[in-house]
Amino acid sequence: MASNKTLVPGAKDALNRFKMEAANEVGVSLKQGYNGDLTSKQAGSVGGQMVKKMIEAYENGMK
Questions:
Q1: What whole-number distance in Å separates Cα of residue 56 and Cα of residue 43?
Q2: Which end of the chain is more exposed for a tag (fewer CB within 10 A), N or C?
Q3: 19 in Cβ contact with 51 (< 8 Å)
Q4: What is the Cα–Cα distance from 17 to 53, expressed in whole angstroms?
Q5: CB–CB of 22/50 below 8 Å?
Q6: Ramachandran assignment for 27, one of left (phi > 0), alpha (psi -120 to 50 degrees), beta (any other)
Q7: Tens of pLDDT along 3-50?
Q8: CB count, 10 Å around CB of 3?
Q9: 6, 15 in Cβ contact below 8 A?
């Protein structure tokens, strides 16, 4: 069963800032709280940008 619980208690604010930064980079306007008015394409582009940045950070850490 899937869960949206944050595993690290202090990470929630950092993850929200990260999400806002990724949305800004792909030109999607997010607001604090509920963003149910986004299209699937917009939400997917934000999630994709977040994954891209996480993979990039991991690869840089491996160097």
A1: 20
A2: N
A3: no
A4: 13
A5: yes
A6: left
A7: 777 788 789 889 999 999 999 999 999 998 899 999 999 999 999 999
A8: 6
A9: yes
The one-letter amino acid at 4? N
Is pLDDT of 2 > 80?
Answer: no
Q: Name residue 25's amino acid.
A: E
Paired tokens of 6: 């944050």
Q: What is the dihedral of CA 15, 21, 27, 32, to 10 degrees?
A: 60
A 10 A CB-CB count for 42 gives: 17
- Check pLDDT > 60 for residue 1: no
Predicted model pTM? 0.79
Give the residue from 30, 36, 37 showing the smallest Cα distance to 15. Answer: 30
